[in-house]
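Hi again,

Forgot to attach this to my earlier email, sorry! This is the prediction with zinc ion bound. I've pasted everything inline since the attachment limit keeps bouncing my files.
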Amino acid sequence: MHERIYRKDYQASEFLVDSVDLVFELDPAETVVKAKMQLRRNPDGPARGGPLRLHGDELELRSVRLNGTRLDVSQFEADSQSLAIADVPERFQLETEVLIHPAQNTKLMGLYTSSGTFCTQCEAEGFRRITYYLDRPDVMARFTTRIEADRSSYPILLSNGNRVARGDLPNGRHWVQWEDPFRKPSYLFALVAGDLACHEGTFTTSSGREVALEIWVEPANADKCGHALASLKAAMKWDEDRYGLEYDLDIYMIVAVDDFNMGAMENKGLNIFNSKYVLAKPSTATDDDYEGIEGVVAHEYFHNWTGNRVTCRDWFQLTLKEGLTVFRDQEFSADMTSREVQRIKDVTRLRTAQFAEDAGPLAHPIRPESYIEMNNFYTSTVYEKGAEVVRLYQTLLGRDGFRKGLRHYLETHDARAVTCDDFREAMAEANDADLTQLERWYSQAGTPIVHANGVWHESAGAYTLTLSQSQRAMPKETEPRPLTIPICVGLLGANGKDIPGTVRTLELNEPEQTFTFENLPERPILSIGRGFSAPIKLEMKRSHEELAFLMAHDSDPFNRWEAGQELAKRILLGLVARVLEKRPLELDEGLVSAFRKVLSDPSLDGSIKALTLALPSEELLSQELSLVDPDAVHRARGFVIRELGLALRAEWMRTYEQHARGADAIDKAQIGRRRIKNRALRYLVALEAPDTIALAVEQFGAATGMTEYEAAFVSLVDLDSAETDRAIAEFYERWRGEPLVLDKWFRIQAMSGSPLAFDRVVALSKHPDFNLANPNRARSLLYCFAAGNPVAFHRADGRAYRFIADQVVELDAINPQVASRIVSSFNQWKRYEPGRSGLMKAELERIARWPGISKDVSEIVERALER
Ligand code: 0A1
Ligand code: ZN
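Structure tokens for the complex follow:
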């Protein structure tokens, strides 16, 4: 059995590391790592005079020296997992030498190679795969790194901080020495060695220091770095303007690699990125890819203060840096693109991934209480719900109060490893506010439900709003206690405008509270939860007419969109019920006229229009059902798409034609144009009429930018036509040499609504360009299919379950982190009708019994099977 780690068991480290000097003799097959560490007992430690115990993982120890003297095997205990020395003084120097095998490291944790480039990933516990160390974030040390490697294969040698020296060695080798002036935890260590090209820039900080910016990529990608560099500069400027935070080193490097488990990593001064979040030019990257790059580049940059300068005491505090940094990148993106579009994207993502997580077996508070494998806790809850909890502070304290609090937090805790409580206390102290009740957001899992009931008192001219809150009680947890929930509201008059004096932030602190609005001239319509002011589910009786009214008039753009989604959701759920009852389907005229209004509204920009005219996804609809039948959901939604296509055919056509032509430029106007154009195309192609299919074929043939090319391809792959096969073949021929574009080819086929999708996915898993060991490729095909194609993954015969389970088991032996993400697609098994539910459970049990299954996958599977 694997060991479970508890938050309550935290103890300070018995030893501290003052400095580490590393030497790497790089070789893909066998690299020597020498570490020279200055250690001492921690005066604030639990003081037990015990042995020194360092972490390790898959290391081969060659030698250990204590204060210069080589220890013999009786003086230490070592295995691949740890190194223990019983007898050590107060202060001492420890030197170790280990062997590691980077080219065989398929887990992509520690030091590994990606297309021949050496790179590292140390968060959360990867540094112990490089050398024996106190691999925990509250041990912060000064690092130097000397890298030795073959000069012609690895001309570029990078590590954290400043490059201080370089030189040549015999046998065509060379060395470079790096020094990081800032103390840091081991998870922020990084090293890169390869034959890379540099895209350079500079940034002058507000205090006038010049910072060298370097983006390192494979030479063939040198023409795809402009957007990442521009994003980095924009992020540096924004953090100065918004929070007065400046960069603190003279150099900032980003390296793009093709094999990476996550999006990117904030290593001090040397970020390592999944190439997906660096490389872009209009012909290869979509508008969403551009926005993704801007957001992730900013995210990693913002970590320099929120994560690196002030870090986490232990991994239970992960949301301290992640929730806060996601909040910061969301705010940045809102300022760079469009605040309302950004908010809609963020909320949709939260609802799709995080609400599902909270409703399933893996529900955990943003600050978890225990884990078996930390890598499983880089979750939507820790990141996205964590960001919403940080947003609560801003909603409660105001933007200025939040800025004051953030600066106070960073000043008080600079160069330290702290907790979520420290953050809350700093926020409270700087604002002289009582924020104690916010603590519950950190300790309670589950999505809170707020029930709203408004009553109009005609004779008094008053409106009372009663809000009550509840939460699902989690197994093994104490009864949930009431949270602090800010609810932003406004009351609309019949003219569609906010009634003066009614725009407020209500603070719900009790199980139930009533708020009164007085002196109202007329019966109002309530707009509630403006801007999605808290990560809750709202329950309220509202008529379709009220929702349509809010959709047309609400002064809050988020709530205008929200009202449309709520209206569509209610109609769709009604149709799902009809499908199940085998009654004929009929589309509500209200939805058609609401859509028609939006389509013809000249005041709305294309992005907002496209989002408003999108129906809630099958995943979101399924969340509302107590027993999911994915076929019924798919049929109901498909029916509405076709009916809307038919009823508004002329309007869609006009919209398409009006927006058909423009430039490939990535700016707000062109992005908006492409979004509404492509939304129209989807509705039109869904009609499966020769003239509408021809539109997609033409767009596919003529597009020079990836956004329009991809959208046409998506439409065609959803069909079952001769044009579909032709498009699939053409796409492949054109883009087989561009891995990031080829990922799209795999993903779009995996997510297609066509009945052929499953057979295609099986065939693609045997395609010569499919590679289970490359995380982007594995995710494009397998994760996107299992998590993003509900109707095909949940086919009633269970063949897709079996296929994915087989792939998970095979992948687990290569890369457990990626396998455990994919296996999470089985988590919701209890929510499906009995046939599917039983089939999913059987696959989970088969995986659970698989010999040699990783800690990562077994933790997920065991949790899913509990009770
Ligand atoms: N700290 C990174 C996320 C990250 C976490 C673990 C990793 O290991 C494979 C990689 C990256 C971030 O928030 O961007
Ligand atoms: Zn992060």
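The radius of gyration is 28 Å. The longest helix spans residues 380-413.

That should be everything now.

G.
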